[in-house]
Amino acid sequence: QVQLMESGGGLVQPGGSLRLSCAASRTIFSPNTMGWYRQAPGKQRELVATMSTGGIVTYLSSVKGRFTISRDNAKNRNTVYLQMNNLQPEDTAVYYCNAVSSIGGQSWGQGTQVTVSS
To answer: Shortest CA distance to 36 belongs to which of 7, 76, 12?
Structure first.
């Protein structure tokens, strides 16, 4: 089982920025898709952004133009980033890193809290 290690959450004021990072403990079988999901209190977990090894990107409609996902697949490690700009209170949630390989394995990170508040 691949372990995903997240970092970068925190408290930020509305309009601020944060960058989340997620690194895999070992190489994930390719092709694969890595990305971010979030879950706010009382709500279901939702997809925020994903990127495949082939460069196919998916965004939640409400974050398009504000969030940018990127990947670094150097040194046989898989790392995914989420640059979040113009954060709003409705972006407050626990953000989870996710990785899915083409052979069917799926891993989740432990989650990192993002709080947007003045």
So the answer is: 7
Can you tell me whether residue 65 is helix, strand or coil? coil
Q: What is the pLDDT along the chain (118 residues), one digit of tens a residue?
A: 789 999 999 999 999 999 999 999 888 888 899 999 999 999 999 999 999 988 899 999 999 999 999 998 765 568 999 999 999 999 999 999 999 998 878 999 999 999 999 9
In order of 33, 50, 52, 70, 90, the CA distances from 55 in angstroms are: 9, 9, 5, 9, 28
CB contact at 8 A, 46 and 38 = yes
Nearest to 95 by CA among 112, 108, 78: 112
